[in-house]
Design goal:
heterodimer, A: 115 residues, mainly beta, four-stranded antiparallel beta sheet, 11 strands, globular, B: 111 residues
């Protein structure tokens, strides 16, 4: 595997379910990110981890809970979601957060539908 | 705060036509500027970037020049192909890890 991978690619869940999204980066990067992409809205940064420490929590509701057990893996735990949480969730990684002109590398995303 | 404004789509073109997608930005410092592309069913891929004024980023026939005087980073391609059909995002980072994205422009190229 190369780059940034995400599983599952598609997820349908009810509002009372608990599920987790997984992201893995094979690039040796030190930072990982979760973004939400909703229709007709700019990408929203949700969480940032640098060297496994959370450095950004962008006013995200507590029904989204991130976990970064090591620099290669990032999870997003979901519970009691709302239909408006349906979106494409993108994971990204970068070498050194805050480095000038840093490029973020994105995974293919998980398409989430909350019923 | 930082923000990016890009032209609204959708944009529909014929093959071999010239493509321009306008992007302007507002930033407090001296940002780095990016164009990302999202093909159907995929995540975002970096298309090109520029880190200082007058730099030109280029890749796959696409070009964009960092214009500080007009705070712009317009994307151009001289002859598009059907495979260029995608959503294009302009973005900036202002010397930190935060990327501010535009709303995206959907481009469809017809054979």
């Amino acid at each position: 595997e190369t780059g940034v991978t995400q599983t599952p690619r598609h997820l349908v869940m009810g509002m009372t379910n608990k599920k987790s999204l997984k992201c893995e980066q094979h690039l040796g990067h030190n930072a990982m990110y979760w973004y939400k992409q909703s229709a007709k809205k700019p990408l929203e940064l949700m969480f940032v981890y640098s060297l496994e420490e959370r450095v950004e929590n962008n006013s995200v509701p507590s029904r989204f809970s991130p976990e970064c057990p090591n620099s290669s893996h990032l999870f997003l735990h979901l519970h009691t979601l709302q239909p408006e949480d349906s979106a494409l969730y993108l994971c990204a990684s970068s070498q050194d957060p805050g480095e000038w002109g840093e490029t973020q590398y994105f995974g293919p995303g998980t398409r989430l539908l909350v019923l | 705060g930082n923000s990016v404004t890009q032209m609204e789509g959708p944009v529909t073109l014929s093959e071999e036509a010239f493509l321009t997608i306008n992007c302007t930005y507002t930033a407090t410092g001296y940002p780095s500027l990016f164009w990302y592309v999202q093909y159907p069913g995929e995540g975002l891929q970096l298309l090109l970037k520029a880190t200082k004024a007058d730099d030109k980023g280029s890749n796959k026939g696409f070009e964009a020049t960092y214009r500080k005087e007009t705070t712009s980073f317009h994307l151009e391609k001289g002859s598009v192909q059907v495979s260029d059909s995608a959503v294009y995002f302009c973005a900036l980072s202002d010397n930190d890890y935060k990327l501010s994205f535009g709303a995206g422009t959907t481009v469809t190229v017809r054979a």
